[in-house]
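A favour, since you know our C-alpha cells better than I do. Just paste the record in under my message, thanks.
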Amino acid sequence: MKNQDVNQSFNQDLIDFIQASPTPFHATAEMQKRLQAAGFELLHEHEKWQLDPGKKYVLTRNDSSILAFSYGENTLAETGVRMVGAHTDSPCLRVKPNADLVRNGYWQVGVEVYGGVLLNPWFDRELSLAGKVSFLDESKTLQHKLINVETAIGMVPSLAIHLDREANKKRSINAQTDLPVLLSMLPPKIGSDAEAKPQFKDLVLRQLHKQYPEAKAAEVLDYELAFYDVQPGSVYGVNGDFIAASRLDNLLSCYVGLQSLLHASENSAQSCLLICNDHEEVGSASAAGAQGPMLQNFLQRLVPEQEDYLRCISQSMMISADNAHALHPNFADRHDANHGPKINAGPVLKINANQRYASNTETQSIYRALCAVNDIPLQSFVVRSDMACGSTIGPITATELGVKTLDIGVPTFAMHSIRETAGSDDAQYLYQSLNAFFALEKV
C-alpha cells in the first residue's frame, strides 16, 4: 500500500480532472491549461516553428487531441524521445444533427451511439450535455466555443418491469428507438403548433449566451455534443480500495501521462512527449486520431533532417497507456486463468500474439526492468484464446512510425460503462512507472 495521503491527493485531482473533462474537447482544454500554467509554450501547426532544447511546447488538433513535448538537452539522434500515448475520447451518446423529437407530450433528443458503449448502465442516470459548438455572432463571424451545461437536464428512463416481464432475462436495447434522451414535458397546446415546438438549437444558443455573453451568439450552425453522467467520481470501499468515475477509460491514462510529463519537464535531460488522441474508440482513422499524421508531423518538424530523424526513431520508445480488464470476481471464467489482472496490484502488460497490442519481448523487458528497479508491482494480460481481443493506439503508432512500442494499462471493472471502477493505488503505480520511463536515457 502506498502513502495514503499522497494517494488521496493524487486520486482527488484525478477525479477533479475527469469532472472538468466531460468530452474530448474539454479534456484537451484542461490539459492545455495545466501545461501552459507549467510553462509549456503553445504552438500552432500553421506557423513556422523554432524549437529549442530546454524549452517545453504544446499543440492541439481539432481541439480534441493534444501533444506536449519537453525538449531535453540530450541529442535526439543519440537518445531519441520517450513517448506516452493515450486517448481523450470515451464511449458515449452523441446528439444527432436534427435531434428534436416531440412525441406524446414529451420533448426528447435523438442520439447516436459513439464507440462500444455498455448501454444498460446509461438508463436512469441524470445526464448533462457538453461539447463544441460552431455559431455565427451578430456580425456574421464564425466562432467556435466549448459548452458544458453541468446541471442535469435529461435522462433515458427504463421501461418498468411490469410492462416487460422478461426484462431481467432477455431485454435487448435498440439504439434507435430506446435511447432518445428525455428533456422535458410540453405545455398542453404545443403538440399541434409546429411554431411553438421546442428546438434543441435554442437550448444550445441559451447555453452559449450564459457562458459567453461577450460572444453575442446569434445562430447555431453545427455542434459536436454528448450527454454525460453528472455524478462526480468518488473513492469507495470499506478501506477506500476503489475509484469510481465516468471516462476512466481513458482519462485516467491522460491524467497520469500529464502528471508524469510535468514531472519529467522539471527533472529530466531526456526529451519526453505525451500525445492524447481523439477517436480511439471508433478506430483512430481521422486527422486527430492516432492513425492520422499528428505525431509524425511533429517529430518530422522536430528533426527535419531525414538521417537524424530515422536515428531518433530507432532510439525512441512509445508506451501506449490504455485501461486493462481487471479480473471480475463474479466472472472469473472470462479471463485466462494465468492472466487475470487484479485491482491495486499494479499496471498491466497487455500482450497479444496477433498484434492487437504492440508489446513484444524487447519493450516488455524494458518495462519489467524499470518496474523491478523501482519496486512497482506488475501484471500481465492475455485474452482467452477463444475470445476476441480489443486493441489500442499502440499497434497503430508502431506501424505509422516504426517505433518500439509497449501496451500497458490500469486494471478496470465495467469498461465502457457510464461509470467504471479502478483501484485507488493503481494510478499512483502507473505514475511512478511513467516517471521512471521518461527518465531512461537508453531503450
